[in-house]
Amino acid sequence: MLEHGHTGGQTRSPASQSTSALVERGHIRLLTFNLQVGIQTSAYHHYLTRSWQHVLPNPQRLKRLALVGSVLEQFDVVGLQEVDGGSFRSSRVNQVEYLAAQAKFPHYFQQLNRNLGHFAQHSNGLLSRLTPSHIEEHRLPGMLPGRGAIHVRYGEGPDALHIFVAHLALSHRGRVRQLNYLSDIIEPLRHVVVMAI
Predict the structure, then answer these.
(1) Which CATH architecture is the domain 2-196 placed in?
(2) Residue ranges of the domains in the chain?
(3) Between helices 61-72 and 95-102, what is the axis angle to 10°?
(4) Which helix (H) or strand (E) holds 180?
(5) pTM above 0.70?
């Protein structure tokens, strides 16, 4: 079964591990990960020498995604920042969908934040073994558009778990403004996890 979200996001079933099995275990393994569109960086100079990969495809990208997928398999809910929704630079691979398949996540959601057509699909992503009760998107305030947050709810009522996946601005002022925006949404909620980079 495929359920469509608001801007190209989606969840799928059936689950590879039942929600009840995760609840019985008594804890949920969470991870947030800035994929950087699949660019491998291990030193500061890589941000300069490998920056071309933000624009052009690289045949090594799929190998890196497969490696990342093997790590993500250990977690129950994963928040992703700087993923591509399937454009020229990612060789037309929707990286959220690809990682969901690689790491065997039954539910996934892509939030398209900055749509540059065939050239780039700047996105956030959510991978989940738990079945979401509700998913919504937020456009974060900022000088430049293109930053967003995914709000996923598990369960109903005051005891529901709320998880936010956000990609924040680079500037301190921008981050403060965006965190204030999220704080207003979070204030009435009881159980909240914010996964932000």
Answers:
(1) 4-Layer Sandwich (3.60)
(2) 2-196
(3) 50
(4) helix 172-186
(5) yes
